[in-house]
Amino acid sequence: MLFNSYSFLFLFAPAFYFFYWKARSTDARKWISLVASYVFYGVWSWTFAALMLATTSVDYFTAQRIEDATTPARRKTWLAVSLVSNLGTLAVFKYFDFFAESLNAIVGPGLMPLIHVALPIGISFYTFESVSYTIDVYRGTIPALRRFVDYGSFVTMFPRLVAGPIARYSDMATQLRALPDRLPPDRALRAVQFFALGLAKKILIADPIAHRVVDPLFADGAELGMVSAWAAALGYTAQLYFDFSGYSDMAVGLAHGMGIELPRNFMLPYVADSLTDFWRRWHISLSTWLRDYLYIPLGGNRGTVASTRRNAFLTMLLGGLWHGANWTFVAWGAYHGLGLVLHQWFRSTGRSLPNVPARVITFLSVVVGWVIFRAPTFRVAMNFYAAMFGARGLDLAYVSGHLAWCGAILGALALAMAFDTYDVPLARTRLRALGLGALLALCIMRLGVESPFLYFQF
Question: Is the pTM higher than 0.85?
């Protein structure tokens, strides 16, 4: 079920919040959340909802066994069971065919058969949440939950189930132990405002740019000149930000409607002054997850300079692979890993760039990286890079024929660098409330075309 759909806005959400706030206890609200989240997910596939229930049950059981184990060996064994369950399921559904095809291309066709299974939506997100939970229990950071509804309602919470933000139980435990009995007016207003602004990002900015600029140009990549190639790259830069941050804002708003505050996922990433700074601002919940559960266990910055740079590179390489089973994502991760290493080296020399050049270089580096992230194959990406750097001429005619859309892309990017949903004052005045209502109404009027969020594929 999509947030930007009539069925969600006029059927699922009203019914859910009605029963949720009619419930008389925290336990009742957790059960309502748990059941509703499986309904929300099951609309896509009840088979994959059953798969999610199975992996959730394994983690619920193994976390208790980890905590109850009397020897380090048993604790490690039960942790291994949880990791194999989670990462093994992710490997089969997301990566098996990718690695099989890669091996067959090297050794010879037919060595490994392909299984051609569909990718469960959101599996990368809820898998990472489950992994962090069992690891934190193993580390002794949090206690194992003894009631299934406590764990299940956390890991399946529908606002963030299929595209984050990636939450950790350790960060949300206090909120989840005692859900509020009622929703204060300011909290309700914040819920509506976050949802409306996120929906506007998706419906009014990301989707039009995608339909009118990005998708047609990427489909004709071999025919592009320099200007049209940059229009496609900059258009996708705007589309991806407003699509994904729009989803995150909607998820935050829906969670506020439950009396829960989710972690922040974006903080003006396109004003970053380095790739290191960019990853502190973009998909923050993933960046911090990779830091705490991959980079630091690899050794972080505790070893030599070479090992620190190796750890940063490997973390970004695996972060790229997390996004998708394609060598283009691996290359994108390697690109950002190399960028982090170069930034660490440059910083170690004691030199620094002025703020404006640093931001421009970082932004252009991100845009160049988004091309291979968006391209389905290396050939398409190389065609784009050739066009972007002048191999096929300027193509100035594109601007004259698409002046309005070129202006819209530049305006969207300027907005992405200046507008932060978290800085918008609550619409307490009548004028602001009317404006928010008009924005929401405009978005609802434009819901006719189904448009999944880009990060659903990850």
Answer: yes
